[in-house]
Amino acid sequence: MNYSTVLSKKPFPPQKQDQAINLLVYGCEIQKITSGNKFEKLFIYMSHEVSYQLIYIINQYTNYIDLRKIRFITDDIRDSKKFTDDKSVLLQIFVSEECWYLKFANQTLKELWWQGLQYFYTKVKEDLKEKLQIQLMAWEMFIKFDEDRDGSLNKEEQQGFLNWIKLVYPNKSFIENKCIQSSFQNKLEFMQFEEIVRLLYKQSILIKLNKLYLNSQNLLIEADFEKFIRTAQRQQDTDYFFGFPMTADKFNDFLFSQQNSIFEMGHSDDMTKPLSHYYINSSHNTYLTKDQLAGDSSVGQYVIALLNGCRCFELDCWDSISDRNPVVYHGYTLTSKILFEDAILALDKFGFMFSSYPIILSLELHCSIDQQEVLGQIMRAQFKDELYIYEQNLSVLPSLDKLKRKFLIKSSGILEESYSLHKNNQEIHKTMQSQKIVKTQKTLELIQVDQDPEPGLVREIAQKQRISNKTLKNLNYENKQKQFIRHDAICDFKMIGDQIDLVIPVSMNVKHHPQFLSCISLFNSPFEINKKRSIWNISSLSEDKVDKIFKEKKVKEVQQHLNNYLVRIYPSGMRVDSSNFDPIPSFILGAQIIALNFQTKDEPMLINRARFSQNLGIGYVLKPKYLIEGLDQVTNFESPDYPKKLVTLEIISCQLFLLHTKNVINPQVIVKLKGNKVDENGQELQTNVIYNNGLNPEFDQNYSKTTFEVKDVDQAIFIFKVFNKSDDNKQTIIGQYALPFKNMREGFRAIPLKDENLMVMEYCYIFAQVTIQ
Hints:
Residues 133-168 form the EF-hand domain. The protein is built from 22 helices and 31 strands. The protein is an alpha+beta fold.
């Protein structure tokens, strides 16, 4: 589990720390705000004897939150549509993929509780380093069955544990007969319970490796550990910070740890290439929590997307009926609304907290001219210098390094109008500076006409606004020809000192208000690959159009086009359930913005997360060399420049920690290769089914080993899934993982499983041996 500074807040007064700790340990009553702004009372306290968990009780039902799964906390809550009362007593907590709102009795209680949580969160990172995984697993089981919370298991609680063991491990009678029942007494203490769990999870692979590398005292010395890393793991880097000699338990822990994961982080990409050379982690209808028809909208979804590496967000902008505050929602549906301003404030506050690279806001515009002006005012006021204004004379898009900490606004708009707008602004700015006009906080209104003005009208307006004849002439307001801006159009610019904030010429019958238009840097335009266009034009294609490109065999020319220009791929309108399309064809096409429904945790989202786990997870991944350079000889990847790789994969065993299961477990592991069609071609590995073992299944080598041939190494992604096979041959997924080939490590490796919400399942792994040739 990776820890981040999710509890970032200025330090609390140290004199209140004891009070805060006690509040967490002894517990307090809090209200949890659910959908529809309903309140649910819960009693919540901290369990910290072995592991650290928040125990909460709702309506006599007990559940817990692993403290390590709290990803972010803030009291800067921006959802005005959801909360109209006092926000000072609210905390917003992001737990796994959920956004929780907690309401406290008063602000003092909230601050104390937050301080206590911060204390334990800091402590957990240090304390758990010293704990073995088997201890933590045993403790989670123990508190699960210790229903009266007295620190031991009575006969009834022991029977609950026995029933669970029989469910997930029914054919291991010797465990029950020789270990469990003989150990059970009227009270079963944790130390005895831990020994039972150790026996349950023992695997032959661990025994084998221990025999190979541990000495006669059952210890692993540093020299033998380095030998294991270099020979078995095929690594040159042996800089691990362990104390030596290492016990068998510590060695086993290392094998099932993040340090020994099959995933290798690798090096960061070159960030000096043009924006069009990168895949961009992108979301569709980011504000939705569920489906496209009646799902709830939440500002919190933007923060969840940020936490998951998203750098391109969608906002569907509509007029507010009651006031001039534009809203975001899925138009003509029953989805709830959030304020556009709230979404912008949240993105501004948290947008560069997790990555400093640019954010693209894809605005689907349905607002009237009047409320477009508000959109522009909000973005300019909030983003200030972080709002990117495109440069007119560039022939290629700027690099990511140049765009650091910048917001790029994508929307409908006419690029030529925008050019004219910015040109006029520059001329006015230059003229005003040359006149050395200094009018602090003075707003000037310039009215232009669409017809030959009445004699003296323009001069009268200019005199009224104290604009000199020279300025007037320079701005061409005295031209007797037909003016291009219509009557009654008003634009404001503010003189602050000798700085001009903004000048906007406005037309009454245009589709876009200049205040809004002046914020746009990426302009929607039709997808025309053979037509000359600006680098600032961007096209949008539905997933169906991508399929059509492949069917019509136009892939190569589209790939070449997308080397210089941006395209956004979005889900079909038929996906009202917020399901996702397979992003791999779009990756192969070279599409930069592949917008997926982040709220839906399906296989396409698993693949998307795998792709963007590359490049340190910053939300941008450099496209393959053959896409950037347009190399012709790699169509079938038979070129000597692209030698194929052979990946031999053996699935040895699983470590499963399925404490909440209610089914008999018959696990099977299936591995598929996804990517370019030259690689997929039915390449798959299926292990045998292990019946009645939901703890530590070990697979038959005759069925669990195969060699995959990988030609397009840049696009190849391995997908691992553990299924539960029922007697009628139906299968349900237990855990899953996806891994780009380029990040795969050789040796005996742990493959950390993710649940249906794509969150890491603590203590759940596939154990495999990988060889790459």
